[in-house]
Structures are given as C-alpha cells and as structure tokens.
C-alpha cells in the first residue's frame, strides 16, 4: 500500500536514513490488556524487540548515521507508565532492551503511541514522546525537532 504513496515509507522492518538521522520502526505489540495476551502476541513482541536491538546495534557503526529515532506502537519502558504499571506486565521484556546496543549514544528520541498520559519527557539521554489519538477531536499531530 505504501509503494503507491509518494514520499511515504513503511517503517516496519525498514530503516530510513535522512540527513544523518536513522528512523527505525517496529510495532513491539502492546501487552497492556491481559485478555489479549497469547503466545503469538508474545512471539511477535519478542521478535520486534530483537529487530530493534539488531538494528540499533548495526547503526552504531554506520558512518552516515549520527542520530537514531525509534518509533514503536507500544510503551517502550516501565517508567513511562508513571506509577500505573499493570501487575501482569511487571516482568515483561520491554523494547528499551535495545538501548543496551546503543554504545555510541545515537538514540536521541523514541516516539511511541497508544497509551496515555501524553508524554514528552527525557529519561537518560533519550527523549520519549507520544501523542495518543484516543478519538479526541480535533486531533493535532505532535511535531518535534531532532
């Protein structure tokens, strides 16, 4: 579907590099609803987290990449629940695992979706940003500068 749209790239399993900034996207599958968790969701979640980890690792030595932006559909780390972490996800592996591969500190931003509250915060050296839709009208996409 994206191939038909000019200047649109599907981020899933692709890395886009523009002006020294790599954009890496993965779903990472939200595990917040205990009724939706099954073996396929867990397998897909772990597969996406492994993909992020491998991509971040490879981009460390890529000479054209100065910064990395990660984009996921799910919450990337427990701290972004701001004290409201569901009990059933306390011991889950989170996508933030891939930051262990960020040896050159290239990951500067992590954009994620699907959860409230609205977030624009820095943890460590990474700025975490979300702007969930939740069918609020009017909805204004959040803009940020890298």
Describe the fold and architecture:
- The chain is of the alpha/beta class.
- The protein has one domain: Transcription Regulator spoIIAA (2-Layer Sandwich), CATH 3.30.750.
- It contains 1 helix and 6 strands, in the order ββαββββ.
- A 6-stranded mixed β-sheet has the order 1-2-3-4-6-5, covered by helices on one side.
- The longest helix has 21 residues, at 39-59.
Helix content: 10-25%
Spatial separation of the terminal alpha carbons: 28 Å
Rg is 15 Å
CATH class: Alpha Beta
Q: Specify the overall morphology.
A: globular
Biggest sheet layout: 6 strands, mixed
Strand content: 15-25%
- Count all strands and give the number: 6
SSE string, helices as H and strands as E: EEHEEEE
CATH architecture: 2-Layer Sandwich
Can you tell me the residue ranges where pLDDT is under 50 for at least 5 consecutive residues? none
| Major sheet strand order | 1-2-3-4-6-5
- Tally of helical segments: 1
**Mean pLDDT value:** 86
- The assigned structural class equals alpha/beta
CATH topology: Transcription Regulator spoIIAA
Write down the domain tally: 1
Describe this structure in a few short sentences:
The chain is an alpha/beta fold.
